[in-house]
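Title: Comparing notes on inverse folding

I've been comparing how different people in this forum approach sequence design from structure. To keep things fair, I'm posting one structure and asking everyone to reply with a full sequence. Here's the target:
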């Protein structure tokens, strides 16, 4: 683990103290987005459940059911290049896959916007062996 990742991990948990205690909520949010800690400050994400979809639908559903979600503060997101954004997103997806999470789709497949991050997420997960459930509300590993 790199020193930066270590800092994010430490910052991602409210009980973290010591030399990294100065890190603010932005680092905590990046830690959340990368799957180091549950969504929301102090929230306990439902183990093994992640929500994907278009913003803000995925955020709202994840918050309502206590699931993990990709979340980087707008102030941080706006400073990232497209490559950095996708790298952070991909790392979040890889961690989700490695945990074996249930993947809930907040946005129906017929409403996927071509070229969106959601479309890219679906394509990436398809390359990892995932396909939509019969009712289109989840992704299932084949």
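Reply #1:
Here's my take.
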């Amino acid at each position: 683990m790199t020193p930066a990742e270590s800092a994010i991990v430490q910052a991602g948990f409210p009980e973290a103290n010591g030399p990294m205690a100065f890190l603010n909520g932005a680092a905590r949010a990046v830690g959340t987005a990368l799957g180091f800690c549950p969504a929301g400050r102090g929230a306990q994400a439902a183990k093994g459940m992640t929500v994907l979809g278009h913003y803000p639908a995925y955020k709202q559903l994840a918050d309502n059911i206590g699931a993990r979600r990709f979340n980087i503060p707008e102030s941080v997101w706006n400073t990232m290049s497209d490559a950095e954004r996708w790298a952070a997103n991909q790392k979040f997806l890889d961690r989700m896959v490695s945990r074996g999470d249930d993947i809930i789709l907040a946005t129906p497949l017929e409403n996927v916007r071509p070229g969106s991050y959601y479309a890219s997420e679906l394509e990436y997960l398809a390359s990892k062996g995932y396909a939509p459930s019969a009712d289109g509300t989840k992704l299932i590993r084949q």
